[in-house]
């Protein structure tokens, strides 16, 4: 290595001697309308720079000094002082280049030739980052061509971008080259570290076509690792560099190695059971089939399963009459197979959302109350009711046959705890997730498909039932501005864009006195609802882990207002951290945050995140770090079914972020969901491989 480095430094000095007098910079020459002409260095057959005689250099230099101008006469020589300054600048640039290349050769396991044409270096680095470089040098991001690069490589874009950033785990790249990260929605102009470093570094390098060393580390910064990349040898867009000697194209197909998770911390893996596993009569559907599937899951060391306990099934007909029969049978099967259980207290309706294949409404007796008093449901500005869950305005209102909504939730949880006491005592139930809103998530139902919402609409505020309006009126009176007791009248509709509204546009009313008052009240109602229900859940499930599901809404995250988050109840505009107060409430109750970025569910549908100024990666980064910074554990689950290698790679990276300086990782991961498709041989082998990696076990086909 020392000899190789010596040859590299020597070659750089030779380049200086040969071309320094030719390559000069003089902005003042623009007045003469002339350009400095520099002959490009020639590549020898061995890849080195061809030597030039001292006489040739002298003649070329003389031609440069006495080059005639279009107006006649000779060009005057530059002052010697300026030449020396130019030489000094070039030496400094070359010294920086040499250090970067040497450090990454030594620590990054890159097999670079000593003398590399800078065009090859830049082109290969761009391809590694997910860009397309044509033979004539034309370069463009692959996503602008419908992510052609990823499709040809057998990978799909993940996280809202097609680029992949790869660095060494012990890289010596200076800290000042790290791109500034925007947490507040006004994003950095650089999409990832490659974009930023390309603007900061004068010289760069890439590995040659030889595979990485198996022990090398791969970091992902703004984009996940996409896998092995596929075969690009025969594609004219993805081939290697241009040989300057004979203009023949050379393949530089770089095979990206997957990260090796062997020896990393153990993250438990659970599998979510089918939604219709318990029917409306609270009977277990197809117990024999479930036993077979659970045995298969057990054979690959899955830790346990997650099951929804639906309020609409258990307390379906009469208040405080609970039927747990189907769940008892299921829990016994799970215990016999020595699996763990995560149980969801599902106080919402099932059906109408992405992935819902059954319909489970709220209890019949609740629906009867709703027909005579529809204000028990969330309501939008037009008066449309949403029966997916109960309005938080009735948390303390005795409108449910003499009980408040919070008392109804409390009685349900107490019944469950008493019915399954033995499963708590032996530790088989490892976690209780308490449903706090639509889809069991702590948020407002601000973007219901049943009311016509379509991505990337901003959604609407859901505060127009009489109970929520009464709360708003009291808050306005306490503030001394009773005329603020109203919802915004210029916030658009479900499918509006922020710039189309007077409330969410840049400089809009959201940041005015009234806007700040309203958004603070709206988000505080969400936090108070979670606080009330979790206080009672802690009483019921003392000694058991409790979790709350939070779903991120990343579209319009790169705007100042963060409109979709505001309508969902997260006061996360560019001048606020809307998740800190929520996380503080969770920490108060010792609760685990189960975070899933809702925008990720759109990745398989070829959604263009750029048009909606979405940033799933940025939102995920913000929420996870907000929780981890105050020691709140974070669990997660995938938003849509995943069966391919690239998707599993992404989930693995999110479970154990490699670029986290403190080595933090998920508390647990729940896979969505058990199905016949998952049980197909190829899909199941991929899932088994994923489980091993998340468990921190070695995978033999790590280079496959």
TrEMBL record:
Record has Hydrolase as a keyword: yes
SUPFAM superfamilies: (Trans)glycosidases
Main enzyme class: hydrolase
Residue numbers spanned by region Disordered: 1-91
A Pfam family: Glyco_hydro_14
Bias (Basic and acidic residues): 78-89
Key words, A-Z: Carbohydrate metabolism, Glycosidase, Hydrolase, Polysaccharide degradation
UniProt feature, compositional bias: Acidic residues: 11-33
Domain of life where this protein originates: Eukaryota
Segments forming domain BES1/BZR1 plant transcription factor N-terminal: 73-212
EC number of this enzyme: 3.2.1.2
Reactions catalysed according to its record: Hydrolysis of (1->4)-alpha-D-glucosidic linkages in polysaccharides so as to remove successive maltose units from the non-reducing ends of the chains
Biased segments, Polar residues type: 51-72
Entry annotated with the keyword Transport: no
Similarity annotation: Belongs to the glycosyl hydrolase 14 family.
Stored PANTHER family: BETA-AMYLASE 1, CHLOROPLASTIC, BETA-AMYLASE 7
Protein name as catalogued: Beta-amylase
UniProt organism field: Coffea arabica
